[in-house]
Design brief:
Layout (H helix, E strand, L loop, with lengths): L19 E4 L1 H7 L18 E15 L4 E8 L6 E2 L2 E11 L4 E6 L5 E10 L2 E12 L5 E4 L19 H10 L6 H15 L1 E2 L10 H7 L1 E2 L1 H14 L4 E8 L6 E10 L2 E11 L4 E2 L4 E7 L8 E6 L5 E15 L9 E4 L1
Parallel strand pairs: 10-11
Antiparallel strand pairs: 1-5, 2-8, 2-18, 3-7, 3-17, 4-5, 5-8, 6-7, 9-14, 12-13, 12-16, 13-14, 14-15, 18-19
Helix pairs in contact: 2-5, 3-5, 4-5
Length: 339
């Protein structure tokens, strides 16, 4: 049985009340005092000793419009799935307020938790606020069936990862000595990290991998798209990951490379690599959604009828609520650090 709090029916939802609630109303009590909660300083922890950790993610998105809009159709991908690898969603609560709206949730084709919101009219603004508790049981191998290794969704190019001549030449060079699997995945990750310079404001959500590589600058999304393009050119299935990294103010992106599991021919493993930081993703990372590229996992997007675009104001708080230490060989004991 899942420990996740069930979806609440939100009495009166179909009547278009000012506040739409997703998740459990009971779960909201877990987050009432969230603003007062002192979270752990993740930088002071000895991560090598952490066995399990519980994360609190609080996000507030507000769209403001200079004039009334109508027929809003909005998509949110800001809550992680119930279970993903070693990650378990404990509870969540989402509110849509300030306007009469109808909200539903479903799983998309990649298993992501998708929230869809509809509103007939928005006079000035609409708010989306979410609270999520997630537990991670150490960094455990994320096992997949072996058929994932031949999934065309993670092997075929997309507009954002379509290879140009530079990417093609780079892929040939990286795989020239016959390296495969984990070794090649790490090599590509290291190469992208060294080839790019993190520079906000030089690219946007429509910038392709080839364009970003030509610039030599970009943000985590660009690093991930370049790595995806190179992995797929080298025959490595790979997928885009949207999530969060402790200590960063905005969302983060990295890559999962799907490789055979050495001790089990019927299974594959999702190897999480972060080309922006040149390392393997660890317990500092929280996964929200996966897809072929950024277009599949956009955290917030939608359409409406109106004369002017809206303005997005966003804030986020991510931190550790508790961290459990692994058993000490010398003492045979375990300990829990709480805020």
């Amino acid at each position: 049985m899942s420990s996740d709090r069930p979806l609440d029916s939100a009495r009166g939802r179909d009547k278009g009340l000012p506040r739409r609630v997703l998740g459990s109303e009971a779960a909201r009590g877990l987050f009432v005092d969230e603003v007062k909660l002192t979270l752990l300083d993740h930088q002071s922890l000895d991560w090598g000793r952490i066995h399990r950790a519980v994360y609190l993610l609080h996000q507030h998105l507000r769209y403001q419009y200079p004039a009334p809009i109508s027929n809003l159709r909005h998509r949110l991908m800001i809550v992680p799935p119930e279970s993903y690898g070693d990650q378990q969603r404990v509870a969540y609560h989402v509110e849509v307020s300030d306007v009469p709206a109808f909200s539903t949730t479903r799983r998309d084709r990649f298993g992501n938790h998708l929230i869809e919101v509809r509103a007939r009219k928005v006079a000035h603004a609409i708010d989306f606020e979410s609270w999520v508790l997630v537990r991670r049981a150490g960094v455990q191998p994320h096992r997949l069936p072996s058929r994932a290794l031949s999934d065309p969704r993670f092997l075929d190019p997309r507009p954002l990862t379509h290879p140009d001549s530079i990417l093609l030449a780079t892929a040939r060079k990286l795989a020239a000595d016959g390296a495969t699997g984990v070794q090649l995945a790490h090599r590509i990750n290291d190469w992208v990290y060294a080839a790019m310079r993190y520079t906000p404001g030089t690219t946007d959500v429509s910038t392709s991998a080839g364009e970003a590589l030509t610039l030599g600058r970009g943000v985590c999304q660009d690093y991930a798209h370049i790595m995806l393009a190179l992995c797929r050119l080298c025959g490595l299935p790979a997928r885009y990951v949207s999530g969060h990294l402790l200590g960063e103010g905005g969302p983060h992106a990295w890559v999962e490379v799907l490789v055979p599991r050495p001790d089990s021919p019927r299974e594959a493993v999702a190897l999480p690599l972060d080309p922006t930081h040149g390392r393997e993703a660890d317990l500092n990372y929280l996964t929200i959604a996966v897809g072929r590229d950024y277009a599949d996992v956009t955290p917030t997007s939608g359409t409406f009828i109106g004369s002017s675009p809206g303005r997005l104001l966003a804030r986020k708080r991510l931190g550790l609520a508790t961290a459990e230490l692994a058993a000490e060989m010398a003492t045979g004991g375990e300990g829990t650090i709480s805020a």
